[in-house]
Design goal:
Number of strands: 4
Distance between the termini: 86 Å
Bound molecules: iron/sulfur cluster
Helix content: 40-55%
Radius of gyration: 32 Å
CATH architecture of the domain at 54-188: 3-Layer(aba) Sandwich
Shape: rod-shaped
CATH class of the domain at 54-188: Alpha Beta
Length: 194
């Protein structure tokens, strides 16, 4: 009885020969040294840094503000959030009106003593780490109303301030500059070591 085979001997030789021809055609250049090749690939695709730096970098671009607009400066703050100035570049486009979801208190305008307890309460309700930006002369020092019986001569009497933005009012560009200064501060603060 004859045994069935998928290939007769000559067909098997042809298949094997074709395979060898294809391999010869594809094997004109030697492979590079694996160590050098891997090094080049890593340089192109892998960034090495510390965990602390990645966390601080992420924190810098995800600072969420709770706005406290108290007087005329607030309109410049509102302009800065509109499309012309585009706060979303900084990951800040969504203003949080709940202090528990925010880590930046953005104060713009004249703080009165009557309003001061509310400012302190909002600050206390924010989770750590948190930052405060004082926008405009009134917020920084009482401005034109410094010395008035009703106006707080600088919000740093009520809460710690990270960045002061001068001007009456500061333009939106001033606020953007202040936010970039805050970014530098966030990046420089090492949150893990704290
Ligand atoms: S600094 Fe000037 S613009 Fe700003 S709240 Fe005071 S008075 Fe108004």
């Amino acid at each position: 009885m004859e045994i069935e085979r998928p290939y007769v001997s000559s067909e098997l030789d042809r298949v094997e020969g074709a395979e060898i021809d294809a391999l010869m055609a594809a094997s004109k250049e030697p492979y590079p040294d694996p160590v050098a090749w891997l090094h080049e690939e890593l340089q192109r695709n892998v960034l090495l840094t510390s965990t602390e730096h990645v966390i601080d970098w992420g924190k810098r671009y995800s600072v969420w503000p709770v706005p406290l607009g108290l007087a005329c400066c607030a309109f410049e703050m509102i302009c800065a959030a509109a499309s012309r100035y585009d706060l979303s570049r900084f990951g800040m486009e969504v203003m949080r009106f709940s202090p528990r979801q925010a880590d930046l208190l953005l104060v713009a305008g004249t703080l009165t003593w009557k309003m001061a307890p509310a400012l302190r309460r909002i600050y206390d309700q924010m989770a750590e780490p948190k930052w405060v930006v004082a926008m405009g002369a009134c917020t920084v020092s009482g401005g034109a109303f410094r010395g008035s019986y009703s106006v707080v001569p600088g919000i740093n009497l009520i809460v710690p301030v990270d960045v002061y933005i001068p001007g009456c009012p500061p333009r939106p560009e001033g606020l953007l500059h202040g936010l970039m200064e805050l970014h530098r501060k966030v990046l420089a603060d090492n949150l893990i070591k704290k």
